[in-house]
User: Which sequence fits this backbone?
């Protein structure tokens, strides 16, 4: 009788999760997959086949765009890690009490406005008649206005800015759990700053680093607004291709196939990353 | 108690009575086509309520396709994009001419739109607002830009802009001495034109500051002086002319591209009464003039240009003399499948370095 009741409780608690997974994740993906498998042969005529997937591999333009997107996302992830690690270390190890909370909050505050507004903020700063260009003119470093927008560097700046929080949060959590006495012991045993960082801090923070990297990589790869707005005419991004297939080309079949390819290929990149860093998904995400 | 019951019954009756005649009109349209004041007048006069969603041609079709023609009661795509969408997706229902006050609509435009939007013997579109796309030029800085191809002059490197959409392909085609409209029904010939245009636009890419996407973005670029010449809609040029007399709309030498935005009924629209009421209301000359004053474009309403403010008329006449008007290239209906070819071309231009 008791076990029946607890079983009921288990299923009741499980049902929201199942409902969410099935109705919002599994069913739409099945629908999308079905669409991606139908090749258009004429007006309102479709055939089942892998033709849409073949388009991706046969047209260099598409897989090059994917490669470019993946490469830029990996670069973003690396930059975010390099910039985020000192910040997280400072917050977790060198501050206490209120200062810590305040600093953490300051990292969070920019994320209270939408991504669109933040991106427009960057556009105001970087455009030819913008703040940065005018300031450099004013102090006499340059004599003609410079356009900082509409190139790959602007895309990287925007992506790093939008995703750095997702690197800092897991890093702070893992670094927080590192016992200070371990670092002191390292110094007592004659370790230098770099050797302690390499042998104690980074191995301990590894799960945080990997989970931060996965989140930042996925967010950058799936970002649409930032690359399109900051990249301008050079903003070739894979999500942009999917958008145009769906909206301006009315080609849902190819768009769906691209969506699945993005899912599969990005999962492959993450898998390779986990293998290279010798971490497992349950070890990094499950903590 | 009894009084309460009676008053409740009366109230219920009143509510159900109004719900028979008053409907909610879900309007899918362009920015500026349904000004607040016009909506307020319409709601006061008919009792219907209006919900406006602003969009563009591609998104309108994409939205209606996603719901098989549901979710909206009246939409306003351009006349050349109706038959192909109807043929592919079946998202519209035919117009019942009995319910339209045709006397309010300029007969030639009504007839032209009817013939361009006829599919399987049914008419699907009524003309509403027309306009052109051409060049918006800062005449003080780029006075000699007279055609689309002039945007690729070295003199304006990094200071021009256009959209990466099908009108750009077609405009450049005409400017290069080709005739894309004549090749609409001949896929091989059209592909030939696209290939030539692709070559030009790829070579021109270094000249472009950025491909603009929305009207506000373009106005910002021109106003700040970052861009001195661009392919754009006529109204954008006239609006900028009000702020800066140097900037205005120029009809290109090869001809401005003319479009007519229409009224269509989505296949699963629920408020046809309100939709027809809205059509007959906004085609009234006084209301049409109000819409022209906010949207900047002229309507197909008989006498609708009389109440338009004088400044706008002056700007219109400065941009279009009679020869420029005669030279307008009106978009013929796009055959289904043509967008695929154009899409591949646009993708390649976007990816080129």
Assistant:
């Amino acid at each position: 009788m008791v076990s029946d009741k607890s079983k009921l409780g288990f299923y009741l608690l499980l049902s929201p999760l199942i409902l969410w997974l099935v109705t919002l994740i599994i069913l739409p993906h099945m629908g999308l997959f079905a669409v991606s498998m139908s090749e258009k042969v004429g007006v309102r005529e479709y055939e089942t086949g892998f033709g849409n997937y073949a388009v991706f591999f046969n047209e260099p333009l598409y897989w090059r765009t994917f490669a470019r997107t993946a490469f830029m996302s990996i670069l973003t992830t690396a930059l975010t890690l390099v910039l985020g690690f000192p910040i997280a270390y400072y917050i977790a190890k060198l501050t206490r009490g209120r200062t810590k909370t305040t600093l953490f909050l300051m990292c969070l505050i920019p994320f209270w406005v939408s991504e669109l507004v933040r991106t427009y903020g960057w556009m105001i700063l970087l455009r030819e008649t913008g703040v940065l260009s005018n300031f450099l003119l004013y102090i006499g470093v340059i004599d003609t206005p410079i356009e900082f927008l509409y190139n790959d560097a602007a895309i990287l700046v925007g992506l790093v800015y939008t995703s750095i929080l997702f690197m800092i949060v897991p890093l702070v959590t893992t670094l927080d759990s590192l016992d200070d006495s371990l670092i002191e012991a390292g110094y007592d045993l004659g370790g230098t700053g770099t050797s302690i960082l390499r042998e104690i801090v980074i191995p301990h923070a590894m799960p945080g680093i990997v989970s931060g990297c996965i989140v930042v990589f996925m967010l950058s790869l799936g970002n649409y607004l930032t690359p399109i707005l900051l990249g301008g005419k050079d903003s070739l991004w894979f999500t942009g291709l999917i958008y145009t297939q769906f909206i301006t080309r009315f080609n849902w079949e190819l768009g769906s196939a691209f969506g699945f390819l993005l899912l599969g290929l990005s999962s492959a990149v993450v898998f390779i990353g986990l293998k290279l860093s010798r971490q497992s998904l349950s070890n990094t995400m499950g903590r | 108690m009894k009084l309460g019951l009676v008053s409740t019954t009366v109230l219920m009756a009143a509510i159900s009575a109004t719900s028979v005649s008053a409907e909610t009109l879900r309007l899918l349209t362009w920015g500026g086509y349904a000004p607040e004041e016009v909506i307020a007048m319409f709601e006061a006069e008919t009792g219907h309520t209006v919900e406006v969603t602003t969009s563009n041609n591609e998104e309108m079709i994409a939205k209606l396709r996603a719901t098989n023609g549901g979710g909206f009661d009246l939409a306003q795509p351009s006349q050349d994009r109706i038959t192909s969408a109807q043929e592919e997706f079946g998202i519209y229902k035919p117009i019942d001419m009995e319910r339209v006050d045709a006397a309010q609509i300029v007969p030639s435009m009504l007839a032209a739109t009817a013939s361009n939007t006829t599919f399987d013997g049914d008419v699907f579109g009524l003309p509403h607002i027309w306009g052109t796309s051409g060049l918006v030029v800062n005449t003080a800085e780029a006075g000699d830009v007279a055609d689309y191809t002039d945007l690729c002059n070295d003199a304006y490197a990094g200071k021009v802009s256009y959209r990466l959409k099908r009108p750009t392909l077609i405009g450049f085609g005409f400017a290069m001495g080709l005739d894309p409209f004549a090749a609409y029904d001949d896929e091989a010939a059209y592909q030939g034109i696209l290939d030539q245009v692709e070559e030009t636009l790829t070579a021109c890419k270094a000249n472009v500051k950025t491909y603009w996407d929305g009207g506000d973005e373009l106005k910002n670029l021109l106003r700040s002086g970052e861009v001195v010449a661009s392919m754009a809609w006529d109204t954008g040029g006239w609006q900028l002319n009000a702020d800066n007399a140097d900037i205005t709309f120029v009809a290109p030498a090869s001809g401005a591209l003319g479009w007519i935005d229409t009224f269509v009924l989505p296949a699963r629209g629920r408020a046809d009464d309100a939709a027809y009421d809205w059509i007959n209301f906004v085609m009234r000359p006084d209301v049409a003039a109000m819409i022209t004053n906010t949207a900047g474009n002229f309507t197909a309403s008989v006498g609708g240009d009389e109440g338009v403010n004088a400044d706008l008329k002056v700007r219109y006449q400065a941009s279009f003399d009679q020869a420029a008007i005669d030279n307008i290239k009106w978009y013929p209906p796009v055959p289904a499948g043509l967008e695929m070819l154009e899409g591949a071309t646009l993708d390649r231009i976007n990816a080129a370095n």
